[in-house]
Amino acid sequence: MAEVVLYHHIQGLTEGVRSVADGLRQAGHTVHTPDLFGGRTFGSIEEGFAFARQAGFDQLRERGITEAEALGVELVYAGFSFGVTIAQRLAQTRPGARGAVLIDSCLPVTEFGETWPAGVPVQIHGKQEDEFFGEDLPAARDLVGSTPNAELFLYPGDQHLFADASLPAYDAEAAGLLLERVRSFLASV
């Protein structure tokens, strides 16, 4: 079984993010969910961004990195949207990474190095028409094209944060398929 660090999105560590973590735990995985916002959750993406701007994006990301460093090295790094910025960085730069799951976002590999690390599998999930993920789709395709250990899953629709059951953007069918794919991925790392 895998040990996973799952980073929340810009609206905070919502019940929907906790639910995804619980779904992975039910499959036997150990899942850590660092709360980067100190218990705060937000009703909209805009409210979450306003908080993160005030708190400092870099400080919040560093908090997430510190949380992972306290856990050991053989981890799978996963994140939703904002959380991807931490998960992808750690998967690319921290020795011992066992994999990465990037949901609703993907940064260019060159943000954190020249290439994706050999032997580190990655899954990327996003909605085909999501305006936020649409900006990241070229980076996701480039990542998948650069390594044999990468998969990109596109789901119909335009909802951002579609796997969070506590938000209006929730898509039960797509979220169920995402969870199934992530469980399979974690069983293989």
Notes on the structure:
Helices cover 42% and strands 16% of the residues. The chain is built from six helices and six strands. It has a six-stranded parallel beta sheet, with helices on both faces. Helix 4 links the parallel strand 3 and strand 4 (99-103). The chain starts with a strand and ends with a helix.
Low-confidence stretches: none
Total DSSP helices: 6
Q: How would the global form be characterised?
A: globular
Q: Termini separation (Å)?
A: 8 Å
Helix content: 40-55%
Q: Tally of extended strands?
A: 6
Secondary-structure-derived class:
alpha/beta
Integer-rounded radius of gyration: 15 Å
Strand order of the largest sheet: 2-1-3-4-5-6
Beta-strand residue percentage: 15-25%
